[in-house]
Backbone:
C-alpha cells in the first residue's frame, strides 16, 4: 500500500515534503537512493523501503511510483 499523496502518476512530481518518482527501466532502490539522498547506503534505502511500505524491495518494477521524502 502506497501512502496517499495527491499527485499525478506520470513523471516525477514534487510537493514541499515529498517527490513522487516513477521507476524507470534499470533503476534500483540503490540508484534511486543515490539520486535523491546522495548515496545508496543501507540507511537511505531503508528510508525508501519504510516510507513506501515495501514488503519486498526486489519487487519494484518499471512504472511503479515511489515516494521520496525531501
Residues:
Amino acid at each position: 500500500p502506497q501512502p496517499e499523496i495527491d499527485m499525478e502518476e506520470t513523471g516525477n512530481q514534487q510537493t514541499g515534503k515529498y517527490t513522487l518518482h516513477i521507476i524507470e527501466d534499470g533503476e534500483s532502490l540503490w540508484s534511486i537512493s543515490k539520486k535523491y539522498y546522495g548515496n545508496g547506503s543501507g540507511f537511505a534505502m531503508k528510508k525508501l523501503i519504510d516510507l513506501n511500505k515495501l514488503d519486498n524491495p526486489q519487487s519494484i518494477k518499471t512504472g511503479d511510483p515511489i515516494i521520496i521524502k525531501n
Residues 5-10 have pLDDT under 50 and may be disordered. Strands lie at 13-14, 18-22, 65-69.
